[in-house]
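Structure tokens please, single chain.
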Amino acid sequence: MTGTAAEVPAADVVVVGAGPVGLLLAGELRLGGARVTVLEQLVEPTTESRASTLHSRTLEILEDRGVLRRLGALPDGGPGHFGGLRLDLAEAEPGHPHAGQWKCPQTRLEAVLQLWATGLGAHVRRGHRVTGLTVRPHRVEVAHTGTDGTTHRTTAAFVVGCDGEHSTVRRLGGFELAGEDGTLEMLRADVAGVDVPDRRFERHPRGLATAHRWPDGSTRVMVHLFGAPPARRTGPPSFAEVTAAWAEVTGEDIGHGTPLWLNAFDNASRQVTAYRRGRVLLAGDAAHVQMPVGGQALNLGLQDAAALGPRLAARVTGRAGDDELDAYHRERHPVTARALTGIRAQARLLLGGPEVDGVREVVAGLLRLGVVRRHLARVVTGLDTPRPPASTGS
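Here you go.
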């Protein structure tokens, strides 16, 4: 049932999505003096583990904004990989203070970013689902519905969709999403009460398996049956699907365990043709959809936010014109396109069956060359792009 319309105070920018990308952008905008409202359809922050890897460029960004110290000591994430082949990401820039990759659960990152952004004055409204966008010559009106069915309308100068791969803002804003749908699927789950060997992208005759024990004693398993396409399901896979695939690939039974989290992803590779359409912009997975290999999806999104925040803050506070926003597209679109090319190559190496064994052997040989390792490590970690400056107020 729809209630009566309620007017919400205007903001300079409405950010849709209170995940890590939206919250980093909100704080960045506040640093630059912009008034920010964040709309998030979830009533409470997610408890799902999801992404957990942070790269060197991202840690620089978090450090520059005073967020890194709030996260505390982060455990070393190990050497990294390229398509399942060992790649020491520290070789991107030896001696860098954050060389390599680091582990931080998404739940922890979101909690810290929300405290930081709201402490700077960002207004986060949870339980609000965006239902419409109306673009006017000098403003955007965002329609959204609360959990009680009441409809609301927030007016802002700009709207940024940070609402993930199934972005409502992208759809309502009329953005074109170019690229390819997924053809192969990997299942993953966090499971309590199982004892299986740790394995890293272990290839078997029937498929690929990965297992890693978390500090809490649960185990993250990931499994791909060679040639398995994305299933036609509306939600996450069932635990029965995961256990059946795991048994077929490894011969092990994990069905007695307790699933804590279930998820599936595929090798889709898509990117919007423009990151900006007038007063509507996109960042993170709303702007690009990719296989979440090696943590690159999260890090690309956070780097989008860092690139957009100062520009958008300068625009709404009168310190810059529209060209500054167009520069956001000019900077981030080619960077992400290059990253997506690498991710597609990794997906082929990871999810391909015996037919890619020869390619894997060739790539493994190339990875013996230092110049190759450094190049790939710099692309993965984001150190092949300039370090974005933090926002500054007027």
